[in-house]
Amino acid sequence: MAKQLDYHTIREIFTRFEAAEAEPKGELDHVNAYTLVVAVALSAQATDVGVNKATKNLFPIADTPQKMLDLGEERLIEHIKTIGLYRNKAKNVMKLSRILVDDYGGEVPNSRAALESLPGVGRKTANVVLNMWWQYPAQAVDTHIYRFGNRSGVCPGKDVVAVERAIEDHIPTDFQQHAHHWMILHGRYTCKARKPLCGTCLIRDLCLFEDKNL
User: Could you tell me which residue ranges the HhH-GPD domain spans (predicted)?
Assistant: First the structure.
């Protein structure tokens, strides 16, 4: 774990991220808040590409909780069976859809606590939905952010909650809205787990990672 970088270094890092891609986007396909919840829930231990392939034909016919209930669990499984843990995920999707219909009038709630109360929706999923759909600067810490934060010193922490707090505490507020997307994309495509592309990294002179592959 690297030490925590100072304010000026972090500001320069995110200034560079913003200059490279001013409006970073999440890579999960969705058409509304409900399909975003479902997509993120399905993405646990799966790739965004794999989820998008599975939902390509699903969301056109089941883009609301009621339509998903009408589709039924077995037909849902046919769409998502290429995704890991698909049977358990299908059960959770059906359960959360029932709760949304019965308790929320078919609408997705926009508080973290309400979202986390849904089956299959954890803190990371809730934060993704709050950030991407309601533009609330929630920080969804996944394996890419955890790795990047601890390598670079941008947001080091012993667990995902500590990393989330470090993001909120240390990244300047004008970068908070897009912070987790910049870090996810950087971790996914540059600061990779096994062979980080340090030689082409746009923040290599600011990063504290000691084993730079230059």
Answer: 42-189
Give the SS3 label for residue 178. helix
**Is the pLDDT confidence value at 132 over 80?**
yes
User: What integer pLDDT is reported at residue 118 of this predicted model?
Assistant: 97
Number of helices (H), then strands (E), belonging to the chain: the values are 11, 0
State pLDDT tens for residues 186-200: 999 999 999 999 999
Is 142 noted as a catalytic residue in this protein?
yes
CB distance 125 to 41 below 8 Å: yes
Residues 59-77 have pLDDT tens digits of 999 999 999 999 999 999 9
- pTM, rounded to two decimals: 0.89
CB 146 within 8 A of CB 164: no
Residue list, annotated binding site for [4Fe-4S] cluster? 191, 198, 201, 207
Binding residues: 191, 198, 201, 207
The angle, 0 to 180 degrees and rounded to 10, between the axes of the packed helices 176-189 and 7-20 is 70
pLDDT 10s digits, 1-16: 899 999 999 999 999 9
Q: Which of 29, 142, 169, 211 is catalytic?
A: 142
Picking from 187, 194, 177, 4, the residue whose alpha carbon sits closest to that of residue 203 is: 187
Q: Name the DSSP class of 121.
A: -
Angle between helices 176-189 and 123-134 in degrees, nearest 10: 120
Of 25, 91, 95, 124, the catalytic one is 124
- What integer is the mean pLDDT of 197-214? 90
